[in-house]
Write a structure and sequence with these properties.
mainly beta, Immunoglobulin-like, 6 helices, 24 strands, binds copper (II) ion, Cupredoxin, copper ion binding, oxidoreductase activity, Plastocyanin-like domain-containing protein
């Protein structure tokens, strides 16, 4: 469908066909079902180096949340995602549905089109002598919701639940509603439900981030409309919103129609305060700094040529093919300090786990890189490069996350436990199989090696208990792995 770039390290079948492998983003799954980038396969039967099966098994035993699935084949993810290999995947429960409807997915994506309606993906890169086709960020000039440009949606004058996903390749969304006094009541993040909702007039979503929100149309009369807007500059945060293509401001128009308003997604009860959210949370064991066994300081860097064109991106100063460094032990808690040394924002996604943002702290990257000061980042928050004390995460970055915005010149500290949200062991052995990935979710960057592998190391102390737990389960998937 699109030109491929042979200068990138990519899945390259000899006999043609499109290599692909699906990743369930946010899913707690065995690594052989995780869409490892080298586990691709084609319709002609060719496979990547870590392929084991084209059947992926999702056990769906995790907190209630909206996941999404997309292609993850090495070096061509951006093409497969732009071509349409993206969708939402919601894990719910009967108990949840006694309180709340499953909600309506709003999968937001930007694309470019040719006049004949075909998707326009650039076939010549910004550095054609170096990378034939690669562009550092694919921005569409048109925004789609669930595959439709500028849709409208008829609602009743009531409260609805929506699951919003930013499925754009590179565009950060800053969402708002164009009626004063209307809010997003955010009830969940990437990683599932919050203990209580918070109300926001604007909602920032990086590529891959999700927001579970209630929107209250009850103050509107029949025939009135509300537009879901975007004011996210490109790039965030330095871009000029007045340079945005005109068809990327407006996303979706809600029209109040008492006769024909959609009845799915409708929340029972008249007020957000009527809903008892705490009853929906799993018994959670909170993440604690006291439990941290390792702090990893990891750089987030783009490497430019003399004309400031980005040539290559790295995490922890390594590319995808370098030996695995991150080998956390199952069940233990770590802090990952993501040190963004350049001027671009990168949303970093870690497979397998949901984590929490501890804090963010800005520093002088120029002084740091010239060796004139120190960060002493491990547990740090001290060090002469820092410009200010560590700050709590922005409100929309609280709660459980699988993707976090790393701002330029900022250390973003996340706390991760390599277990389920409630502290239990996973229902499968995460140390088996080819392992997992962590990467930038600007998919163009991901394809230009801003991605690193990690593996989970078995926990010998817990091994006997976990072995009994996993073998006591009735499900057959454990046998299937074997
Ligand atoms: Cu990036």
């Amino acid at each position: 469908m699109f030109a491929v770039d042979d200068s990138l390290h990519r899945a390259s079948p000899i006999h043609g066909g499109v290599p692909m492998v699906v990743h369930l983003h946010g899913g707690e799954v065995h690594s052989s079902s995780d869409g490892h980038p080298d586990s691709w396969y084609t319709s002609k039967g060719e496979v990547g180096s870590t392929f084991s099966s084209q059947n992926h098994i999702y056990i769906n035993e995790q907190s209630l949340l909206a996941l999404w699935y997309h292609d993850h084949a090495i070096g061509i993810t951006r093409l497969n995602v732009a071509a349409g290999l993206t969708g939402m995947y919601i894990i719910t429960s009967q108990k949840e549905q006694e309180f709340l409807p499953v909600g309506l997915p709003l999968v937001i994506q930007d694309k470019r089109f040719f006049d004949n309606g075909e998707i326009n993906f650039p076939s010549v890169g910004i550095l054609p002598d170096y990378h034939e086709q690669w562009c550092p960020k694919y921005y569409g000039d048109t925004i789609l919701v669930n595959g439709v440009i500028w849709p409208f949606f008829k609602v009743l004058p009531r409260l609805y639940r929506f699951r919003i996903l930013n499925a754009c390749s590179a565009r950060f969304l800053v969402l708002s509603l164009d009626k004063p006094g209307m809010y997003f009541y955010q009830i969940g993040t990437d990683g599932g439900l919050l203990p209580q909702p918070w109300n926001l007039t604007s909602l920032t979503l990086a590529p891959a981030e999700r927001a579970d929100v209630l929107i209250d149309f009850s103050g509107l009369r029949n025939g009135m409309s509300v537009v879901l807007n975007n004011s996210g500059p490109t790039p965030l945060p330095s871009g000029d919103i007045y340079q945005m293509p005109p068809m990327t401001y407006d996303i979706l128009k809600f029209i109040v129609d008492e006769e024909e308003g959609y009845r799915e997604g409708l929340v029972e009860g008249d007020y957000v305060s009527d809903i008892d959210f705490s009853s929906l949370l799993m018994d959670e064991k909170p993440l604690s700094k006291e439990d941290v066994v390792a702090v990893r300081t990891l750089s987030v860097v783009e490497w430019d040529d003399a004309n400031h064109n980005p040539m290559i991106f790295t995490l922890d100063n390594h590319t995808w093919e370098d030996p695995i460094v991150q080998k956390p032990v199952e069940g233990t808690t770590e802090i990952w300090e993501l040190v963004n040394l350049r001027i671009n924002v990168h949303p970093i996604h870690i497979h397998l786990v949901q984590f929490q943002v501890l804090n963010q702290q800005s520093f002088s990257s120029l002084s740091y890189e010239s060796g004139n000061c120190s960060l002493q980042v491990a547990y740090g928050e001290n060090g002469s490069c820092f410009l200010e004390p560590a700050k709590d995460p922005y409100i929309y970055q609280r709660g459980w996350k699988d993707t976090v915005i790393t701002w330029p010149g900022v250390v973003t500290r996340v706390i991760i436990r390599f277990s389920q949200r409630n502290g239990s062991a996973f229902g499968f052995d995460p140390s088996e199989g080819p392992g997992y990935a962590w990467h930038c979710h600007i998919v163009d960057h991901e394809d230009n090696v801003m991605m690193r592998p990690f593996v989970v190391t078995p926990n010998n102390t817990l091994a006997a208990l976990v072995f009994l737990y996993r073998h006591s389960r009735k499900c057959t998937y454990h046998l299937l792995w074997k």
